[in-house]
Design brief:
Layout (H helix, E strand, L loop, with lengths): L18 E6 L5 H6 L4 E5 L13 E4 L3 H11 L8 E5 L1 H13 L5 H20 L5 E13 L4 E7 L4 H9 L2 E7 L5 E4 L9 E2 L7 E2 L3 H9 L2
């Protein structure tokens, strides 16, 4: 019997680059986190890269949909020699693109839908880049769950589509937090207020905010 599908085994799965989503408050250190990744290129729509001036990290600025499309073509090409691609932040990129889409749409609702569909597609494309580590930084939003009686902290983006889908799109989803003594750390496991996960099973619940160390731990190297 000839079948159109191939049966595989999970033992055959290999790491072709680690894909990580991180969310956190302003000032938590998401941008500086990018500099700790192996040979990073930062894709930015923010003007908050001053904290990396001494790090001498390469970056590209996104202002329009065309910019984003061109950057994607570059990072998936053989010309791109960077090991890690960092979107800092995906929330801000979505906000900039929403402004761009509003120029062509009279109805703001259509602009939100168009931006949401486009960003989800681009997040998947960047996430699925072969042989690249990819880090998506997101702003953090506070949501009140009246039924459970708790305050929830979730990744933030304009509209509901991106925020609702992001937690399900990644195997590695972390929250960047600051303790009372000023120590920064990445939360990798969920609690009642934050949705986090580490499907590699290689990380502690709290990890130092160093992407090179995290990626090596996940790869088992």
């Amino acid at each position: 019997m000839i079948m159109a599908f191939v049966i595989k085994n999970t033992s055959e799965i290999t790491q072709k680059g680690i894909k990580i989503a991180v969310y956190g408050n302003a000032g938590a250190g998401k941008t500086r986190l990018c500099a700790s990744a192996p040979n990073p290129l930062i894709i930015s729509a923010e003007h908050g890269l001053l904290s990396l001036k001494s790090e001498k990290v390469d970056f590209v600025e996104i202002k329009t949909q065309k910019d984003f499309d061109e950057v994607y073509k570059f990072v998936k090409s053989e010309e791109c020699k960077y090991e890690t691609i960092c979107l800092d932040s995906a929330s801000e990129i979505a906000e900039v693109l929403l402004i761009d889409f509003k120029k062509d749409e009279k109805d703001p609702r259509q602009a939100y839908m168009k931006m949401g569909d486009y960003m989800i597609d681009m997040i998947r494309k960047f996430r699925d880049l072969p042989n690249k580590n990819v880090v998506f930084n997101f702003k953090m939003k506070i949501v009140e769950d009246e039924d459970a009686g708790v305050i929830l902290y979730v990744p933030m983006a304009p509209g509901k589509m991106i925020s609702q889908q992001v937690p399900y799109m990644f195997d590695e989803l972390f929250c960047l937090l600051i303790k009372k003594d000023g120590t920064r750390y990445l939360q990798t496991a969920a609690d009642r207020q934050r949705f986090c996960k580490d499907r590699s099973g290689s990380l502690e619940k709290e990890e130092q905010p160093n992407l090179t160390q995290l990626i090596n731990k996940i790869k088992g190297t």
